[in-house]
Amino acid sequence: MLETLLSSFVSLMTPATLLWLLFGTAGGLILGAIPGLAGGLLTIAVLPLTYTMETPVAMALLIAIFIGSCTGSMISSVLLGIPGTPNSIPTVWDGYEFTKQGDPVRPLSVATVCNFVGTVPSIIVAMFACFVVARWAIKLGPWEYFSLCFLAIAMVIALAKENLRKGIISAGLAFLFTMIGSDPVSGIDRFAPVIYMRSGLSVVCMMMGVFATYTMMMEFVKDTKRNTATNVKVSRFRWPGKDLKDNLGTMIRSFFMGLFIGFLPGLGGDASAMLAYEANKKLAKDGDKWGHGAIGGVIAAETANNACCGGVIIPMIALGIPGNGAMVYLIAALAVHGISAGPRLISNQPEVVYAIYAAALIAAVIGLIIEVVCMPVFPRLMQIPYHFFYPIIIGVCFIGAYLSYGNCFGLVVMLAACLVGLGMRYFDIPAGPFMMSYILSGMLEENFRRAMTYSQEGIVTFFTRPLSCALLILSVLIILWNVFGDKLLKKKTLQGGSEQ
Fold first, then answer.
1. What residues contact residue 38 under an 8 Å CB cut-off, 6+ apart?
2. Is there a contact between 382 and 389 (Cβ–Cβ < 8 Å)?
3. What are the DSSP calls for 349-418, one per residue?
4. Segment 121-177, tens digit of pLDDT
5. How far apart are CA 308 and CA 260, in angstroms?
């Protein structure tokens, strides 16, 4: 393992690859700091560039964008009070309070260190955990894989807690679109009147249409040209030794919470940051100050958010199930290069897997250096007229759509997907379940069909195999809790109040 990792480090240390890593980390950091854009847009935009790259270099570039985006989202949270991505929502509650008090350097310095401390150990843990999980996953049958995919989709749907029905509709739309193309078992064409549709709708085109092109159109309609940045003066980075020492317990707890929650498919950094913040607020001695300018709140949110980076990599590599939305893009990039994510990826393509680990560690170091050195220019970053990005990103998306099919049919698919995204926005249907379900539904159907073929007992086998049964029961409980959980808690609270 160590020898392969060192070999990956050496292979990534070429000038060209280091430039790609610098571009990915810096680009992800900048877009992650701009509310409404995020690094996912850059990831989708550069996917076409990875077609001609070697697979390890392509994955290194994409993981660098992901790391940079997670790191940069705290900048606008502290300086503007607007989170760059949902991952940094809790950072706003305390970090922006320091800015209003005239001391933005303190939360920025703390967040910079916590980003690095959260990312690097989590990647190291992921290196060992992926190997163990993959060895276990190889022994699983199609029944367990179907149940795992079903659980992942159930967890993503459950995030649409405000309207569970629309979350199910979003996943259903993804299932509908993945039915287009050849049957995964019999090879019979389904809903494919055009020859180009026999291989299915390109994941890259669907993502570029539903997310990238759609987001650009919405931002253009809003006519938002730049952030209303304040006249905040940011001095140089200050080592936050005392703050870290006083909140060491908070940092450790947040790290393990972020790592574990990141491992659960579909949850990601926003859930880990939120849960770590709330849990540590209850344990903190100054919990009543959290939300009003407590540095412990920034430490909890940013450590958990970045510890999630290693957590989400584990199911992506070991199981082929994306841990969050960003991992969907990496799975799509692997598919473009003819590689399937899953338990055999480590044994069949070790150079790709360890390139991901090595690139993530290098990107964390690059991100740390950029944030420490460039901290005084953060306010200027908030004043970038980012509407200039729109034509560039849309242009790259059109090129990528064309290359994915080798003809103009890719443009048709992307524009049709863009209309789907606009329709989902009009009816307030969440996009998260669609993206995750679109990736998982193929695996879900294939394993269901295989399971039904392998066993004469049919669907009963899903419930006679212990792990499969447990995962399916857990999936149902998650959905039921999101339907009735709030009502039960409210009823319990009312009963407790009446007894008093």
1. 31, 32, 69, 73, 84, 85
2. no
3. -HHHHHHHHHHHHHHHHHHHHHHHHHGGGHHHHTT--GGGHHHHHHHHHHHHHHHHHTSTHHHHHHHHHH
4. 999 998 888 888 888 888 888 888 899 888 888 887 876 666 778 888 888 898 889
5. 8
3-class SS at 427?
Answer: coil
Length of the chain counted residue by residue = 500
* Ordered DSSP codes for 26-43: HHHHHHHHSTTT-HHHHH
* Coil vs helix vs strand at 199: coil
Q: Closest Cα to residue 155, out of 436, 488, 448, 431?
A: 436
Query: From CA 312, how far away is CA 300, in angstroms rounded?
Result: 18
Q: 3-class DSSP state for residue 322?
A: coil
pLDDT tens digits for 34-68? 766 666 677 777 877 777 888 888 889 989 998 88
267: number of Cβ within 10 Å: 24
Per-residue tokens: 213: 């092109």
Structure tokens at 273: 């940051």
Q: Do the beta carbons of residue 201 and residue 177 sit within 8 Å?
A: yes
Which of 177, 152, 136, 203 is closest to 340 using CA atoms? Answer: 203
Rounded to whole angstroms, what are the CA distances from 88 to 327, 328, 427?
18, 20, 27
